[in-house]
Amino acid sequence: xxxxxxxxxxxxxxxxxxxxxxxxxxxxxxxxxxxxxxxxxxxxxxxxxxxxxxxxxxxxxxxxxxxxxxxxxxxxxxxxxxxxxxxxxxxxxxxxxxxxxxxxxxxxxxxxxxxxxxxxxxxxxxxxxxxxxxxxxxxxxxxxxxxxxxxxxxxxxxxxxxxxxxxxxxxxxxxxxxxxxxxxxxxxxxxxxxxxxxxxxxxxxxxxxxxxxxxxxxxxxxxxxxxxxxxxxxxxxxxxxxxxxxxxxxxxxxxxx
Length: 257
Known about the structure:
Strand content: 15-25%
Strand order of the largest sheet: 6-7-8-3-9-10
Number of domains: 2
Number of helices: 8
Oligomer: single chain
CATH architecture of the largest domain: 3-Layer(aba) Sandwich
Shape: globular
Order of helices and strands: EEEHEEEHHHEHEHEEHH
Radius of gyration: 18 Å
CATH superfamily of the largest domain: P-loop containing nucleotide triphosphate hydrolases
Structural class: alpha/beta
Helix content: 25-40%
């Protein structure tokens, strides 16, 4: 790994008197795409919110490019599971929101390119209530990418849509990251297949309380698509390693081609 861009050092989080995360340490390189998987209740979303500065750490620290993260910052953008759009704003206004808050009107030109890339250019003047779930999630993704963050955080962004839409969104987001954005990215998901598709490295969190119990580099070639990855000869072995790690079985790393 090159010098770390995001560093978590012994991060613990206590909420309501309950230990949710227990001394989690993690280093993520600049432009690395890391996926975090684990069973329900393991603290994955809490981890993401602590990284975003939305939750205080009880012990330990989070830093981005050497600067402590103590509160939300414009250097980080987050895509939420349940859209989190402004219902009174149009699609275009939702996507432009972060840029306008940051006073970056000179960057508004990229909004239309993102709308078109995510296939929502023709609904730019509609409101969220007029859109399908898949379209609303595209708006949330476009809003996050519009500000060109150093760190992109994705909290199960595809889990609220149907299977076909999910696969399309996975390929679209991955394609944008591979071709244009290449910011540091951290995605939380329950889906092993999604993690293998997206990640340079997969982290397994088990709990409660949440602890890192396994990590696996994913050396599959890029660019990737869902269908190509699933037909790769190493795919079944990678998937089994991750499945076994989630079931707390003894995992030994084989040589992957």
